[in-house]
Amino acid sequence: MSRSAHPAGPRHGDVLPEGHFTAPPADLNALDPRVWAQTVERAGGGAVAVGGLDVRALAEEFGTPAYVLDEADFRARCRAWRDAFGRDADVFYAGKAFLSRAVVRWLHEEGLNLDVCSGGELATALAAGMPPERIALHGNNKSTEEIARAVEAGVGRIVLDSFQEIARVAHVARGLGRRQPVQIRVTVGVEAHTHEFIATAHEDQKFGLALAGGQAAEAVRRVLGLESLELTGIHSHIGSQIFDMAGFEVSARRVVGLLTEVRDEHGVELPEIDLGGGLGIAYTPEDDPREPHEIAKALGDIVTRECEAAGLAVPRLSVEPGRAIVGPTAFTLYEVGTLKELEGLRTYVSVDGGMSDNIRTALYDAEYTVALVSRSSEAEPMLSRVVGKHCESGDIVVRDAFLPADLAPGDLLAVPATGAYCRSMASNYNHALRPPVVAVRDGQAREIVRRETEEDLLRLDVG
Ligand SMILES: *Cc1c(COP(=O)(O)O)cnc(C)c1O
């Protein structure tokens, strides 16, 4: 697969051999803490529990497929990020990874800020009471209505992405009699993947204004000339599912380079820099992500060093983790429907969801693991492929997995690390009803997003 697959995070960015899989794990019943949410455990009797609740009871109450989210884990990750970055930095959760009103309230309570990138995400944030000054609006083609709603609400930051948008936001803010704080999103020519980065990537992408060739500097000049805009800083976001901090090192150096240029040319020291999100998580036990405190230290050191070298006051730093907060906190619970053994090849295990609830495998060749969770098993490992129920042969949830050979219809499977970019990218393909998100905490479970119904589908179909 090509680099275009990278947000899926195939582990090594480039080519996975066809039929790639690792050896069977020593113990099929083991739940590796690297890929499972914090409170997940195999309880007495062999069934898995999360937040103190047996998955069989959750399946009974909420049906399958369902995303099951460990609220304690979500909150703990928020706190870990907030504490790691401390008072001199801001953590913005990237709402596109997964957003709901409950999530907004958790973020608010745990002291995080929120990135939104559409009117719908902004509406969700405001509906759940996120203070507007803690919201940042992103996007490469924000509509005038989206901009107006954001300015009117008083969002703390709009991240400008094009020359047209500079004029548009300035116009809207002027019309509303506001001075809108903005950052400029720049492309620094770094392309970061899981374990490697390219420092001289061609800036051939839709986001941001290029540092190379002076677009970004021109954008700064224009924004500084507009009364209704207050330029607070420079923004850069270099990729996703990144483990290697070297890409951030280069991007921070180049962003600080621009700040230096701005000071020398305009006599202005911009007070903020945002280095974006994209921090990786473990989808399989082979993935080894950095902890928030290591990331905070690395980014803080880089920015401080570069600013000292340039004689600049150290700006206020912000980061925007999405996947790294919500990704590990949820798993998708499925029921096995059919099994098809292809002699000498593998067994196809069909579950009651698929590409409509997890498009990442089909879209990016993402890797996942899977476990039998309604019971334990001492049966031999069976090379399997977990597939969905959609009319599409690419409808694969887990390409290569070992499951116990006594797997049978009615068993429950769980695919961990599906908190990010699964429900938020879910579709109604084949008129599938999108699964609920069930939050569990201290022995209590509740739907924070309910399951779609046929009435929901038909309500949009106006005949
Ligand atoms: C997608 C995105 C993020 C979050 O990315 P993750 O990989 O979920 O951390 C942060 N900032 C911007 C601008 C983004 O587009």
From TrEMBL:
Which positions bind pyridoxal 5'-phosphate?
A: 278, 320-323, 421
**Keyword Protein biosynthesis carried by entry:** no
Output the Pfam families linked to this UniProt entry. Orn_Arg_deC_N, Orn_DAP_Arg_deC
Keyword set for this entry?
Amino-acid biosynthesis, Decarboxylase, Lyase, Lysine biosynthesis, Pyridoxal phosphate
Q: Name one GO biological process term.
A: lysine biosynthetic process via diaminopimelate
Its biological purpose:
Specifically catalyzes the decarboxylation of meso-diaminopimelate (meso-DAP) to L-lysine.
NCBIfam families hit by this protein: lysA
Its assembly, as annotated, is:
Homodimer.
Record protein name field: Diaminopimelate decarboxylase
